[in-house]
Amino acid sequence: MKEREYILALYEIYNCLLTQREKSYFENYYYEDYSLQEIADNFEVSKSYVGKYLNNISKKLNNYENKLNLYVKNEKIKEIVKSLDEKTRNEILQLL
After folding, report:
1. Residue 38 has pLDDT above 70, yes or no
2. Which distant-in-sequence residues (6+ apart) come within 8 Å of 8 by Cβ?
3. Do 25 and 54 contact (CB within 8 A), yes or no?
4. How far apart are CA 83 and CA 93, in angstroms?
């Protein structure tokens, strides 16, 4: 899986564990497609600070995954679900 897709998947799982500021930086960069400079201007910080801050957020998300393994478990569940009948599969996928 591409790094960007992976970090977005981790964010979807673990974003509730981040501060509001971390969420804002992350969402501005990954969802709103702001440049580092645009984020720096919005938060009145340096561009290098934004880059370091985003790297720290990524490390934090990876750390959560290393400890909790929710992404890995969800992927395994999805593989198992594929072998079920369509109705059951759809019901379970809605829960995930």
Report:
1. yes
2. 30
3. yes
4. 12
Per residue in 24-33, pLDDT tens?
999 999 999 9
Q: Which of 29-33, 57-61, 74-78 bottoms out in mean pLDDT, i.e. has the lowest?
A: 74-78
DSSP string, 6-65: HHHHHHHHHGGGS-HHHHHHHHHHHTS---HHHHHHHHTS-HHHHHHHHHHHHHHHHHHH
Residues 6 or more apart whose Cβ sits within 8 Å of residue 96: 74, 77, 78, 81
The token pair that represents 76 in the structure block? 């395994």
- Taken in order of first residue, the domains within the chain and their CATH numbers are 3-68 (1.10.10.10)
Residue 24 CA to residue 15 CA, distance in Å, equals 11
